[in-house]
From TrEMBL:
EC numbers for this chain: 6.3.5.2
Keywords per UniProt: ATP-binding, Glutamine amidotransferase, GMP biosynthesis, Ligase, Nucleotide-binding, Purine biosynthesis
The name this protein goes by in its record: GMP synthase [glutamine-hydrolyzing]
Reaction(s) catalysed by this chain's protein: XMP + L-glutamine + ATP + H2O = GMP + L-glutamate + AMP + diphosphate + 2 H(+)
Length: 518
């Protein structure tokens, strides 16, 4: 098995630490984020990083007891890049001075100008004699540590870019990982080149390693994988099947809340295309029966979650000798975040997943996507030959159409919703907008409205179209369709879908809205 060159990101709690990892992965560098509390001398020695990055963070190094990296980070002999808080902590630890208070803060856009041309990390960075960067700091460095020199300066940060070229320590006050530092990726590129990374983190090599790891973990035992039709579980299933063939059995539970034609597509794709042993369980009667009369969103979610676990377990029990359960867990779910607030956050929605299943069933986990971000899962899917149409699909929630049908769920409403949704998605595809949109769907509203068609009165359902742009689903904005597109889509839905006579467009962003209606 190949051993990738590894970079360690020590997280001091910045909101944007994950973006550092994203930028590095884009440069084919393997990196991991670990909270500063976990990075001990022993951890560092064991991890054996080829370079280290100190992230930003909300604390102040002037406060006693504020987060610190282990001292041995500075004696490992590997390049270090400190960002914002990471810069300040580096200066403080190496004999510089950081100050807080009046006049030290700087938030938002700033321009850095070079004070020297001689810096490998800046190679080709300053395009027009200055570069736009994003600052977000309350404290600033007022004296740099011995051995460091200044290479870039901004009005609010005299030591915006500093470096000790003997030790290959670099420290910047701004955030090169964010979008508002437009050429920030170049800084990371220069840093990793200087640190000797060869860009050995590619999907092809990842795939081979992952297959070898699965074989080693599973041996000759059997694995069960729950398929939802989404990208993550699909990629996990195909990858595991490549590794262990028919030792894998997939279980697909049709809860009767899938979109038009979706259940059939999943079954034919995995059973017919990939020849993966698949149990397709049509449990729609059970789910829809239990959901009868339920209108509260949380009760809907909890009911579906509970039934899903029962049903999955029932089918999994039929697979003899299964010792492992495959899950499409991704890296963002694994990263332990540095929590400064302490208290539990409010539950907005109880997300549906199969958490709890492995313990209940006494199964061990196989999680071959644990090291990947979402777009890397897509790249892996391509590497495995999954069709583009499948890989690029918008996310679809576990509770399915139940949460796009506010109020009571009936078979009639679900059927109308499926048809309207299919027309809407068809419109989006025809106008080549599908890939620009993070997620688009129709919600059927629990109101009937009066309309007129031909010479007759109609009294049918109203529906809402939703389309949002987003990076991770945490925040979102509505998609700015043209009036022509909206008008044409409304006409098509009303003409083609019996049961809907009014179409609205939801222009709420998240926050304050959420993406789904329930
Ligand atoms: P909200 O509605 O919370 O949705 O803004 C954010 C993203 O999460 C998806 N979503 C879910 N996914 N199980 C899932 O697997 C769920 O219970 C669930 N609820 C919402 C939603 O589709 C959007 O992409």
């Amino acid at each position: 098995m190949t051993q990738h060159q590894r970079l360690l990101i020590i997280d001091f709690g910045s909101q944007v630490t994950q973006l550092i990892a994203r930028r590095l992965r884009e440069l084919n560098v393997y990196c991991e984020i670990h909270p500063y509390q976990n990075v001990t001398d022993a951890f560092l020695a064991d991890f054996a990083p080829k370079a280290i990055i100190f992230s930003g963070g909300p604390d102040s190094v002037t406060r006693e007891g504020s987060p610190r990296p282990p001292k041995s980070a500075f004696t490992l002999g590997v390049p270090i890049l400190g960002i914002c808080y990471g810069q300040q902590v580096m200066m403080q630890e190496l004999g510089g001075l950081v100050e807080s208070g009046h006049g030290t803060a700087e938030f938002g856009r700033a321009f850095v100008t070079p004070t020297s041309a001689n810096l490998a990390i800046l190679d080709g960075w300053f395009t027009e004699g200055r570069e736009q960067v994003w600052m977000s700091h309350g404290d600033h460095v007022s004296r740099i540590a011995p051995g460091f020199e200044v290479y870039g300066t901004s009005p609010g940060a005299p030591f915006a870019i500093t470096a000790d070229l003997k030790r290959n320590f670099f420290a910047v006050q701004f955030h090169p990982e964010v979008h508002h530092t437009p050429r920030g990726a170049k800084l990371y590129e220069n840093f990793i080149r200087l640190a000797g990374f060869t860009g050995d983190w590619t999907m092809a090599s990842y795939k081979d390693d992952a297959i070898a790891k699965i074989r080693e973990q599973v041996g000759d035992k059997r694995v069960i994988c729950g398929l939802s039709g989404g990208v993550d579980s699909s990629v996990a299933a195909v990858l595991i099947h490549e590794a262990i063939g028919d030792q894998l059995t997939c279980v697909f539970v049709d809860h009767g809340l899938m979109r038009q034609g979706e259940a059939g597509e999943v079954v034919s794709m995995f059973r017919d295309n990939y020849n993966i042993p698949l149990i397709a369980a049509d449990e729609s009667e059970l789910f829809l029966g239990e959901l009868e009369g339920v209108t509260d969103p949380e009760v809907k979610r909890k009911t579906i979650g509970r039934l899903f676990i029962d049903v999955f377990q029932k089918y999994a029990d039929e697979i003899e000798g299964a010792e492992f359960l495959a899950q499409g867990t991704l890296y963002p779910d694994v990263i332990e975040s540095v929590s400064f607030s302490g208290g539990p956050s409010v539950t907005i929605k109880s997300h549906h997943n199969v958490g709890g299943l492995p313990e209940k069933m006494g199964l061990k986990l196989v999680e071959p996507l644990r090291e990947l971000f979402k777009d890397e899962v897509r790249a892996l899917g391509r590497e495995l030959g999954l069709p583009e149409k499948f890989i690029g699909r918008h996310p679809f929630p576990g509770p399915g159409l139940a949460i796009r049908c506010p109020g009571e769920i009936t078979r009639e409403k679900l059927e109308i919703l499926r048809q309207a949704d299919a027309v809407y998605i068809d419109q989006i595809r025809k106008h080549n907008l599908y890939d620009e949109i993070w997620q688009a769907f129709v919600a059927i509203l629990p109101v009937r409205t009066v309309g007129v068609m031909g010479d007759g009165r109609t009294y049918d359902y109203a529906c809402a179209l939703r389309a949002v742009t987003s990076v991770d689903g945490m925040t979102a904005d509505y998609y700015p369709f043209t009036h022509e597109f909206l008008g044409e889509t409304a006409t098509r839905i009303i003409n083609e879908v019996k049961g809907i006579n009014r179409v609205t467009y939801d222009i709420t962003s998240k926050p304050p809205g959420t993406i789904e209606w329930e």
